[in-house]
Design a protein that fits this description.
heterodimer; A: 208 residues; mainly alpha; Methane Monooxygenase Hydroxylase, Chain G, domain 1; 2 domains; 48% helix; B: 196 residues; Ribosomal Protein L9, domain 1; three-stranded antiparallel sheet; 6 helices; nucleus (chain B); chromosome (chain B)
């Protein structure tokens, strides 16, 4: 396929132009203001109408939290979402495979890496848990992606987070390519998927 | 919260994972630019006040609005860039003439960009392979034979091949044709490559 979108960043780095990273950074985090924000009261329904007072608990998207947070100054404090706290970390430690990471995320690994920007004393534990969880689950994801041929995979991907789903799709793409080659159909010229999908969409538009 | 409209643009593109190009959302972009203008002007006012009257308590708010401006800028830039990636892919998937329905989805600047890209690609291809140039948009899969069997999927009218013969491409007709003449029609879904 000739359309090659900008891929998400790795680890704590975001890619500025990546659509995935922009959506990841839209995730909301529980925060607390450590200073007053004059004139912005209209954003916070509960606050005194004109200003957001110091000590207000509010949800902020990741991009805003990253932009406002300063290590040496008290601007905002960012709380760890439940899934990265000790309670859940123990669950991951026991058996990472049972967790529905789509429900707990859907950006479990992405958001986990981004949380490290906020200098939590638990950063080391968070990083280790996220890494070990990935290692624990990877084998199953890879295995199923390489063995599910021509079948409905919705059950298999249901509990995967976005990163795992992308890996699963890559695995499937490789599997399908190999199968085509084995059947001697790798040399068959095909219509562009863009064209076929476009035509399908046109038909549904006409029917609507 | 600010910047919701900007993220809508991103979601719109993200939904289309196969590289389809949705209509250019001029309306949404205009609203984002209006929001940016308002944020910028409010910040200008507050910065002046902070400087002249020493009101440093305004700084957190100024920073807040600045984050929103950067966010809107990021979303618009990524939106425009991702669309260009899709438009570039169209040259390789559809060929150099785009169907009118797709052209309607592009804004004037994007059409101009597509024309420039076509020209650059053509110039480059002409510079390869000696006098004749080399069409690198052909033979995307290594060819196994000079001639291939194709079936026509829809009526496409008359088609002339190199020795002057004219073939009538009628729906469901089957032909044995030179591979290099068919490749583009196969990509466009007019012909189907029949493997024995």
């Amino acid at each position: 396929m000739s359309y090659m979108p900008v891929s998400p960043g790795v680890g704590m780095e975001e890619n500025f132009l990546s659509l995935d990273d922009i959506l990841l950074s839209q995730e909301r985090l529980p925060c607390k203001t450590d200073t007053e924000f004059p004139g912005l009261g209209f954003l916070e329904k509960n606050a005194d109408s004109r200003h957001i007072p110091e000590g207000t608990k509010m949800e902020m998207p990741l991009w805003l939290a990253k932009g406002l947070y300063e290590r040496k100054r008290r601007v905002i404090s960012v709380e760890l979402p439940k899934v990265y706290r000790e309670g859940w970390r123990t669950v991951f430690g026991a058996d990472a495979n049972v967790v529905d990471l789509h429900k707990m995320g859907p950006y479990y690994y992405g958001l986990g890496s981004q949380m490290l920007h906020f200098d939590s004393p638990e950063n080391l534990e968070i990083a280790q848990t996220v890494l070990q969880t990935f290692i624990g689950r990877f084998r199953r994801t890879m295995d199923s992606s390489q063995n599910a041929y021509n079948e409905d995979t919705s059950m298999l991907v249901e509990r995967l987070d976005c990163l795992e789903r992308a890996l699963f799709r890559q695995g499937q793409s490789g599997l399908n390519g190999f199968q085509l080659w084995e059947k001697g159909r790798a040399a068959q010229l095909t219509a562009s998927s863009l064209v076929t999908n476009y035509r399908k969409r046109k038909i549904t538009d006409l029917q609507a | 919260m600010f910047c919701e409209k900007a993220v809508e643009l991103i979601r719109e593109l993200h939904r289309m994972t196969d590289g389809q190009l949705p209509a250019f959302n001029e309306d949404n972009i205009r609203q984002v630019l209006e929001e940016m203008k308002a944020l910028y002007e409010q910040n200008q006012t507050d910065v002046n006040e902070a400087k002249t009257e020493g009101r440093s308590e305004l700084i957190p708010t100024i920073k807040f609005r600045h984050c929103c401006l950067l966010r809107n800028q990021r979303c618009i830039t990524a939106y425009l860039y991702d669309r260009l990636l899709r438009i570039r892919a169209l040259r390789w998937e559809y060929g150099s003439v785009l169907p009118t329905t797709i052209r309607f989805h592009m804004c004037a600047e994007e059409l101009e960009w597509f024309n420039q890209y076509k020209k650059s690609l053509a110039t480059y291809m002409r510079s390869l392979g000696g006098d004749e140039g080399l069409d690198i948009t052909q033979d995307m899969k290594p060819p196994k034979s000079l001639y291939i069997e194709v079936r026509c999927l829809k009526d496409h009218g008359e088609f002339e091949i190199d020795d002057g013969t004219v073939i009538l491409l009628k729906k469901n007709s089957q032909h044995f044709l030179p591979r290099w003449k068919c490749e583009q029609l196969i990509r466009q879904g007019v012909l189907e490559h029949v493997m024995s």
